[in-house]
């Protein structure tokens, strides 16, 4: 597979420009940052933003050498969830047309969930509704102390439907029910206690330092092995430990043992040298 991100270094805008809606920014260590760029709408996503995010996430499925993917909002807000102007327009459509439209969001979230690299949300400011859903759909989340969260859908007469599988997995059913039913706003420390956020930092500088440390840490690891390790969790969560699962786990380590990465990593350890990953 070749890296489909031909020219991934994109300057991150400091303006309120509404296009392009999503930027990919990458480093030689295999770290990619996906920026949601609708700061004038607090990075709320409409159909076009969802399509752009979906495309970015799909691109990362086939991108060789990508070890870690960060998701961040331009302008100090993570995301205010579904664009309510877009939702309002959808009121004129039939229920079936609304379902087809909502499937776009459901598929975008699944594409994020399925990225082989470790995905990390970097949350500053509001992450409301579907924005908090994006945080839950990532594997890991870091936040600044000013971050605030809400599953505010019920206050709008809606439900957090397409995001719910990821939120329930991250928070567990009891907390998810409470937060879904009240729509209450909660802060970064509360998000940490609920398991939606893994670490809280005083400010954006602390967030970026933690981001850099993670990039350095995963740069030592084989990118293909990271993808396979993450797939173990996605594929085996909740599975019964039966004969079929034992066979599957043995098949997965066998595949790694015969891989170039597996052979190079073990050889390098025994030869007391750093492994030379090809990417
Ligand atoms: C985010 C804060 C706290 C920031 O609060 P703030 O910092 O005080 O900023 P603000 O409220 O002044 O917002 C700045 C601008 O962004 C706009 N804006 C802001 N949010 C949206 C939005 N979602 N859609 C469209 N526009 C939005 C807002 O209208 C305003 O526009 P301006 O007046 O400058 O022209 C506040 O704006 C707010 O409460 N926004 C609504 C957040 C919300 O309830 N989101 C849930 C959306 S429903 C959803 O996500 C459904 C989904 C996806 O979960 C369904 C499913 O799971 O299937």
Automatic annotation (TrEMBL):
Belongs to the enoyl-CoA hydratase/isomerase family. The keyword Lyase applies. It holds the Pfam family ECH_1. It is an enzyme of class 4 (lyase). InterPro entries: ClpP/crotonase-like_dom_sf, Enoyl-CoA_hydra/iso, Enoyl-CoA_hydra_C, Enoyl-CoA_Hydratase/Isomerase. Keywords: Lyase. Its EC number is 4.2.1.18. One of its GO terms (molecular function) is methylglutaconyl-CoA hydratase activity. It comes from the Bacteria. This is Methylglutaconyl-CoA hydratase.
């Amino acid at each position: 597979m070749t890296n489909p991100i031909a020219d991934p270094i994109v300057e991150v805008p400091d303006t309120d420009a509404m296009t392009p809606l999503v930027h990919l920014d990458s480093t030689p260590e295999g770290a990619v940052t996906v920026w949601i760029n609708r700061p004038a709408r607090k990075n709320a996503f409409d159909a076009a933003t969802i399509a752009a995010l979906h495309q970015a996430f799909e691109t990362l499925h086939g991108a060789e050498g990508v070890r870690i993917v960060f998701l961040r909002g331009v302008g100090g807000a993570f995301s205010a969830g579904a664009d309510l102007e877009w939702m309002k327009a959808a009121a004129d459509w039939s229920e079936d047309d609304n379902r087809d439209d909502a499937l776009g969001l459901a598929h975008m979230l699944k594409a994020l969930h399925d990225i082989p690299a470790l995905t990390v949300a970097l949350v500053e400011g509001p992450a409301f509704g579907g924005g908090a859903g994006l945080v839950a759909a990532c594997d890991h989340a870091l936040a600044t102390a000013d971050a605030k969260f809400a599953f505010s859908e019920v206050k709008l007469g809606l439900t957090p439907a397409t995001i719910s599988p990821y939120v329930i997995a991250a928070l567990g059913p009891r907390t998810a029910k409470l937060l879904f039913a009240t729509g209450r706003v909660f802060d970064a420390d509360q998000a940490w206690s609920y398991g939606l956020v893994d670490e809280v930092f005083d400010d954006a500088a602390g967030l970026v330092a933690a981001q850099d440390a993670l990039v350095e840490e995963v740069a030592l690891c084989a990118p293909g092995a990271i993808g396979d390790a993450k797939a173990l969790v996605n594929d085996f969560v909740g599975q019964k430990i039966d004969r079929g699962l034992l066979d599957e786990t043995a098949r997965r380590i066998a595949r790694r043992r015969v891989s170039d990465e597996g052979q190079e990593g073990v050889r390098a350890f025994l030869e007391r040298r750093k492994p030379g990953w090809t990417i």
